[in-house]
Amino acid sequence: MLAKTISEFREVVDGIYGTLLDACEGFSRVRLYMDQIEDESKRSHEELIEERPDFAHLGFGGVEFSYGRIVPAGSPQRFRHLHQVPVQTIKARNSTGGENFRLIGHVCLIALFQYWEDRYRLSFAQALTVEKNQIQVPLFGDIRRYRQAIIHNHGEATAEVETCSVLRWFTRGQRIVLSRDMFEEIIDGILAVLEDFGSNPEQYIKRA
Fold this sequence. Notes:
By secondary structure, the chain is mainly α. The protein has helices spanning 2-51, 87-93, 99-127, 138-152, 159-162, 180-199; strands at residues 64-70, 79-86.
């Protein structure tokens, strides 16, 4: 039962990590696409000025980008704008360390903790015939502190985050932005914990 639990949780961890890596790659590609759109718009503006010098007083005001979908036939509108913002806004949030990178890091960290706390911590306890609260892993204790700060403190590090024993990256008041290197360290740490559960689980059991 223990080996099965380790294997299952390893797959969950790998899936969450794969999602983060896919997303980060996608963010980078979106930024490149926005660069292309902006360059093409600037060229079109310059060509217009060359053809119509009387429009020279009209500066380049930037580009808006819209996500949308075609509305079914019979509706008063044929296209619905779902989300429309300046290209610069999209470029900023898809830049390394931007809002999209920050958010996906938060979402994946929270997912890791919830799978651990709400399902697999109990599964490990049952496999080792102990109570759930006897399973104590310092790394997941740190992840819990990060989760609390992300959800309950607007994503800023708290005094509890400063007490982390493994993930010692942020001081109180700092915005929690997990870089890809940081997340790789988290994943490597979890995989090492799973190896330990397979070879020496006793170190994670708190006996009375």
